[in-house]
Amino acid sequence: MARNRRTNQKIQPASAYFCAQIQNMKQLVALIGAVVLTVSLVVLGFTYRQAHEQRASLLDDLQRRTALLADSFKESVRPSYLSNASATMQSLLDKFAGRERLLGLAVYDNKGGLFETSAGLSQDLTQNADVAEKAMDSDSATGDFASTDQAVYVYATPLHEDEKIIGALVVYQRADYIGQSINETWKTSLLRLLIQALLFSLAVVLILRWIIYQPIMRMAEAIRQTRTGKSAGNSAMFGHGFFKPIAAEINKMSHSLILARTAASEEARMRLEKLDSPWTAERLKEFFKAYLRDRKIFVVSNREPYAHKKVKNEIQWDVPASGMVTALEPVMEACGGLWLAHGSGSADKLTVDKDNKIQVPPDDPKYTLKRVWLTDKEVKGYYVGFANEALWPLCHLAHTRPIFRKEDWLEYRKVNGKFAQVLLAELKDVQRPVVLVQDYHFALLPAMIKHSRPDAEIGLFWHIPWPNAESFSICPWRKDILEGMLGADVIGFHTQQYCNNFFETVGKEIESLADLEKFAITHQGHTAHIKPFPISVAFNGAEDNAPEAKSELLERLDIKPKYLGLGVDRLDYTKGILERLRGIEFFFDLHPAYREQFTFLQIAPPSREGVEKYRQFNADVTAEAERINRKLETGSWKPIVLLKEHHTHGEIYPLYRAANVCLVTSLSDGMNLVAKEFVAARDDEAGVLVLSQFTGAARDLKEALVVNPYSAEETAEAIYRSLTMPESEQHRRMKKMRDTVKNYNIYRWAAEFLKALTSQG
Ligand code: F6P
Fold first, then answer.
1. How many angstroms separate the alpha carbon of residue 331 from the centre of ligand 1?
2. pTM of the full predicted structure?
3. Range from 119-123, 435-439, 672-676 carrying the lowest mean pLDDT
4. Ligand 1 contacts CB of residue 572 (under 6 A)
5. Which residues have CB under 8 Å from 574's CB, separation 6+?
6. Is the confidence at residue 451, as pLDDT, over 90?
7. Fewest CB atoms less than 10 Å from the CB: which of 78, 202, 351, 446?
């Protein structure tokens, strides 16, 4: 079982770039928007004020001019009015009315009645004598705007005879030019604002691009090159201008890093010949360079190391739950090369290039993943059928009967051929390639490749157990399978026992020459070496000393037991989950005082749901957990918390560290990396591992409490022992197990495998 080391990250290179650009664009737009908004507010404020002042000044001017005009007309019209000479008055008013913005004139009598108007003055204006009356009442000139649709300024001044008010002269002035002038001011201002905003945005884009973005990108690239060891990080790339001081510091850091890396490489080179501990990614890289020089590594597996899926409208990736991926991925990160695998993610096709390739890890590319597409029929026959309904139960002695269907076998052969064709195309121009075939999905692939490319060095690693010869003999296509495997130069198993079983199986099934001393089998002129390589995790003692991280999951689930038990397995019948649950039930029966004190958390992501047996197993586990919970639960406490979801390594790691006991009770398991991951996570050297005797890991981790998972009593007793074990004993056991995993981590596994492979022949 393995889990995500990193998950739910967005995204693959092409879309990652696209998304980053969109993100940058969003920030740029936000920045420009904020600045433009600020400038706009300032400009609008000023314009508003300007318009206000302009209006006041124009009004003042209008009033002043109107008053002057009225005063000058007043004396001229008074005689005609006194003599009631309407015709004379009319011609006078008409004469005056043509001037400037003058709309017209009118004379009212002292009762507010209209005496005479200039020609063309609308009735709307003259029928309202309010302004004239106000002027006469107050005996002073009065001005106001007419309440009509037109913008007209009405100014009235009283006419006198001696001291007596005899009427009023009203002057109508056009005032629409005031509004027009204000509008003009706004228009000009807004146009200016638009031009300013455009120029400003352009300036921001150019400044950000040339002065900030490009130098930062250059610096990031230089740092990346230094970090990945591709170059010394050319100082010219580190930047200039504003960034000079930062660039200088980064430059120094980069040089220190190069020096440290060179020293580490040198040390690693000196220790190359000895395959002892400690092994690190760096040391494997050096080993790889020294042993393989420019030769390229090709890994082939069914399960891909990174799968992309669409979640809502976003593409995300995760690392599938697979022991094989957990082990091989760090090796590929260290050595680079090409990994060929079935593209099974729902968004896999959207994220590859035209050659179906993608650089991974998606967030920090170090090698190439090439995806092979399979039809539903192929998946059903090759993967669901032959690999998982026939070979899986055949190799795991978990008392599940294998199902052999001819049509599944044909698909299996066809898919092995399909992968062989894709791989051979990749190997075309590569001299003496190193091919690492993974697992029982590709038993036929080694011979197919060897046949076309005898110069390729082919390693096959079988990640699951190999049964005894008698058990294997029930397979109708056993000879084809063995001949296919024997095309490899090295065939690796987790334990010597599986090697022995294989040796015995070949001896029983096909004509071949066995060399017991070298543990090699020669068949049809080609020799394959059979060797144990106990697979492991990427533990080197440093990276696992991560700061204590609290389990958000436990907090979210509100699990606060005094003692926590943990199980982490794919929902697979070989993992002994049902037996484990019965062991826990038995434990509570024997030790009821632990009720409400001990909670068992089982992380169990569904697996191989296309296979009926797995669907049934899923239902059985759920029912069993519910039955035990119903029997034992009290208040809000439940003895078993079953989480049937995929969890990331980041989520599982704190659980490993929080658990008092980790239960690995597989009925049959090639190695079981959960056991090793639990040990690697416990840098506090506390916690107890309960481990099935039927796992490969039980041979390495001898300080675990080893149990027969079929015995509920043994499991119950081991749980009790774990919870009552003195701290000093926990430390002693855990320390030894940590030393074992540290001494034989995945880097050493890879180095030993590659060394065995390249030193044959
Ligand atoms: O750990 C054994 C193994 O077969 C791996 O090789 C495999 O990747 C893993 O189990 C999970 O199975 P699957 O890839 O079918 O989900």
1. 17
2. 0.69
3. 119-123
4. no
5. 392, 396, 398, 400, 666, 667, 668, 669
6. yes
7. 202
Q: Does residue 671 sit in helix, strand or coil?
A: coil
Judge whether residue 230 has pLDDT over 70: no
**Structure tokens, 226:** 């230094």
* Distance from Cα 391 to the centre of ligand 1, integer Å: 12
* Identity of the amino acid at 548: E
**Number of the ligand 1 atom closest to the C-alpha atom of 387:** 15
For the CA of 303, the nearest atom of ligand 1: 14
- Reported as type and span, the H/E element at residue 498 is helix 496-509
Q: Among 436, 485, 480, which residue's Cα sits nearest to residue 458?
A: 436
Residue bearing the CA closest to ligand 1, atom 11: 322
* DSSP for 215-257, written as a single string: HHHHHHHHHHHHHHTSS---GGGG--GGGHHHHHHHHHHHHHH
Q: State the distance from the centre of ligand 1 to the C-alpha of 510, rounded, in angstroms.
A: 28
Mean pLDDT of the region 241-253: 75
Q: How far is the CA of 407 from the centre of ligand 1 (A)?
A: 22
Q: Could you write out the DSSP letters of every residue in 5-49?
A: SS-SB---HHHHHHHHHHHHHHHHHHHHHHHHHHHHHHHHHHHHH
Class for the domain spanning 289-532: alpha beta
Domain ranges of the chain: 46-174, 289-532, 552-743
Q: Are strands 152-161 and 307-311 parallel, antiparallel or unpaired?
A: unpaired
Rounded Cα–Cα distance for residues 506 and 478 (Å): 9
> Same CATH fold, 289-532 and 46-174?
no
Does any ligand 1 atom lie closer than 6 A to the CB of residue 607? yes
Instruction: Read off the pLDDT of each residue in 2-8 and give the average, rounded to a whole number.
Output: 41
Say how many Å lie between the CA of residue 458 and the centre of ligand 1: 21
What distance in angstroms lies between residue 691's CA and the mean position of ligand 1's atoms?
Answer: 20
| pLDDT of 16 higher than 50 | no
Distance from C-alpha of 615 to C-alpha of 573, rounded to nearest angstrom? 10
Length of the chain: 761
Q: How far is CA 578 from the centre of its chain?
A: 35
| The domain over range 552-743 is classified in CATH as 3.40.50.2000 | yes
* CATH superfamily of domain region 46-174: PAS domain (3.30.450.20)
User: Using CA atoms, how far apart are residues 720 and 661, in angstroms rounded to an integer?
Assistant: 10
- Answer whether residue 539 shows pLDDT above 50: yes
Residue 409 scores a pLDDT above 90: yes
Q: Is residue 200's pLDDT more than 90?
A: no
Q: Is 323 in the pocket of ligand 1 (CB under 6 A)?
A: yes
Tell which residue, 597, 586, 533, has the closest CA to residue 560. 597
What is the 415 CA–ligand 1 centroid distance (Å)?
Answer: 17
